Amino acid sequence: MKSVMAIHANLRTNKQYFIALFCIIIFVIYDSGNFYRNTLSLMHTNSSLIIRYLKVAALFPIAAISYYSVVCCLFSRSRVMVMLGASLVVGGILNAFAFAMTGSFLDAMMLGVALQERFFASHFIAANWKMISYVTIYSVVIFAVLAVVRRRLSIACSGRLAGTLVIVAMMANIFIANYTGGRRSAFFSYNAIIASAQALTATKVPFGPRAKVADIPCPQCPDLLVYIIDESVNYEALAAMQSMILQDAVLKKKLGVPTYVFRSYAAGNHSAVSNYVLRLGVGKSAYPDKTYATLRLPNIFGYAKSSHYTTIFYDAQEESKRLVNYMSQYDLVDIDRFMVSDASSDLYDRDLLALDRLQGFIDQARPDRRIAVVLVKNGVHFPYVNSVPPWLMDGLPAGCRSPDTSFSAQALFCKKAQYETALKFSVDRFMDKLFSVLSGKNFALVYTSDHGQNLSSKYSLPHGSTENTSECEISVPILVAGKIFGDTMPPTGIRSHFQIPPTLLRILGRASPDPVRDSTLWEPWRGGSEFLFEPFDRPGEWRHPVAACAY
């Protein structure tokens, strides 16, 4: 009798080992890359080493619960839980497939486009039928193996336990998505569920194919167009710290071409709206866009392609090819190379690493091989200390070296110290290196920031506030340089983001779609300081800062 019980106990233990083994197999097949990337990303911040290890350690139980919940559902006594487990496996398969195809796990933007449009379906199937067939076959094999194992070994997991694990895993993965702002993927199939829910509940933006632009000869076009959108650079902060890019004598010596720098108004006080406006070829007259007309207009990549440029888009803020700031698959049509940051790189170093990678393309620019580079810099993010290199940390005032200091309402002094130190490195050092890379080339450079920063209040957001907005949030620099700008541009006066797209079109040999109402940077700005919080629909009404920027 005892021996029978021992055998039964041993068999039960072996079954549990099998479930654990199956968890590991699923993890390796579907999500090990995601776990690895999340770990690298958490380890490359300026938090203390102990905090970084604690954050990484927190990933292990979340991952374990996620995978074990799926396996427990598959071997549950409840048919409902088995069906849920099967759905989670399908979600994981789709996630793995999406990553293989796009370099990114499923997100709400990808799913939103997929749910609303079928423009890519036939082309996608024709281009990837081998991968689709492979995924279909191994998915069928996995489910067949599951059915055999379940029947032969009689492995069972209670429906209550499976349900509890699913609820706990879902809450843990929602925490990841919210805590990281979506920058790091939730685990396994739960990422697909969260992204699907976001896509279904979000306002449906009707993405569609962008209009094609006819090719034109452009003998006056520069060999190289470099268009840089920085992050969180406030013009008054640059002035206070006497940034290199505001010093005319330094710029003339380093570049040797006509160069102009202006204080300017951003199109919006957060990243999404400004990046959207800056990617298109239309000015202020197109906004607010309550009919979604701008979604069908050509983007700057389409115009560059029509002027015979090879187009390169580098998003240094992303670690996978996640489409953000109102980008969709339709924007990728005219992008020849889409590049992102390596998760193993330090946050403060990502812009210089981007420039290193882009230099190979920049050096190829010549009259018969034109290159257009659009770089969204990683720049200076809040908390600002994460953008400060380790060798500059000692230069911060005592008590201002913690990444948590910036969250303190009493620490305005530390916030400014961290911000200016990070800005000096992120802007001046980067631009100094960029100038040396551009030296001797026939180029046009356009540089700006997506929005500014408000550091004068204990309680307001540094940017993106919905009321009582400070002008600091929309006060940004615009720098242009190149022979094409000549001596005809007024050297002073306020400018606006809305003047950049018409300016880019003029560089590319094009006229603005609405030259009467939309001005270029060659002209003073007369459009006021109003900005958009969202470009579309009812939220897309003009807003006004309540006070001048007091940095």
Question: What does this 3D model show about the protein?
Answer:
With 551 residues, the protein is α/β, with parallel strands linked by helices. The chain folds into two domains: 2-201, no CATH class; 224-495 and 523-543, Alkaline Phosphatase, subunit A (3-Layer(aba) Sandwich), CATH 3.40.720.10. The protein has helices spanning 2-43, 49-74, 79-102, 108-116, 121-153, 159-179, 188-201, 235-240, 248-255, 271-279, 300-306, 350-362, 390-393, 412-438, 500-507; strands at 224-230, 259-265, 309-315, 337-340, 370-376, 443-449, 475-482, 495-496, 531-532, 542-543. Helix 2 crosses helix 3 (79-102) and helix 3 crosses helix 7. The radius of gyration is 26 Å and the shape is globular. The N and C termini lie far apart (83 Å). The model is unreliable at 1-11 (pLDDT under 50).
Provide the CATH architecture of the largest domain: 3-Layer(aba) Sandwich
The CATH homologous superfamily of the largest domain is named Alkaline Phosphatase, subunit A
Radius of gyration from CA coordinates: 26 Å
* Strand line-up of the largest beta sheet: 4-3-5-1-6-7-2-8
Outline: globular
The CATH topology of the largest domain is what? Alkaline Phosphatase, subunit A
Cα-to-Cα separation, first versus last residue = 83 Å
Structural domain count? 2
CATH hierarchy class name of the largest domain: Alpha Beta
Described by strand count, sense and barrel closure, the largest sheet is: 8 strands, mixed
**Can you give the mean pLDDT?**
85
SSE order in H/E notation? HHHHHHHEHHEHHEEHEHHEEEHEE
Structural class: alpha/beta
Oligomer: single chain
Low-confidence stretches: 1-11
Give the beta-strand count: 10
Task: Please give the count of helices.
Answer: 15
